[in-house]
Every structure is written in C-alpha cells, then in structure tokens.
Design goal:
Elements (H helix, E strand, L loop, with lengths): L7 H17 L4 H8 L3 H8 L8 H10 L4 H8 L15
Helix pairs in contact: 1-3, 2-3, 2-4
Length: 92
C-alpha cells in the first residue's frame, strides 16, 4: 500500500494528531497499537516523527481504532486552527 503523498509535513501533522487523540482517550501507545493491529514501534515512530510516512492502510487502521474513518481524521487535521493555539495548515 503506498505511503500518504502529502509530504513530510503531513507525517508530522498525522503523528501529532495521533498522539493528541490517543492521550485524550488516556490510552498508551501499546493499547492503541493492539486495537489497530499494528506494532507499538509503528505508533511510536509515527508520533515521534522518525521521518516515516504511514501507509494508507496503517493510517486507516489507526483512525478506525480511534473511532473515526480516515477521511474524517484527515478533515479534522486540516481544520483551521482554534483560539487555543496556532498551527500551519498545508493545502495541496
């Protein structure tokens, strides 16, 4: 399955988003990995931005484990920043 094609910035955004969603649920990386059927190293690598882009299949497994389809997660990641903080939004 091909990696997400939006570049390294998307990897960082996905990893940050993934960590935020996991922590909001009070889950460990190991728990999320078990639910998604991926390794804990995969979750840690994505969250730590080790220069690794998730495949579409991995991204979908992780978002579904968090209770949302991939398209919804991607839409949420590209939403305008809130008043709680700022972040860059990258559009292709």
């Amino acid at each position: 399955m091909p990696a997400l094609q939006a570049g390294q910035e998307t990897t960082m955004e996905f990893g940050n988003w993934l960590r935020q969603q996991r922590r909001q649920r009070g889950w460990s990386a190991a728990h999320l990995a078990r639910l998604a059927g991926v390794s804990q190293a995969c979750v840690s690598s994505l969250e730590g931005d080790a220069g690794r882009s998730p495949t579409l299949a991995t991204a979908e497994r992780l978002t579904l484990a968090l209770g949302m389809p991939l398209w919804e997660a991607l839409r949420e990641m590209s939403a305008p920043p809130t008043s709680l903080g700022t972040r860059k939004v990258h559009r292709n």
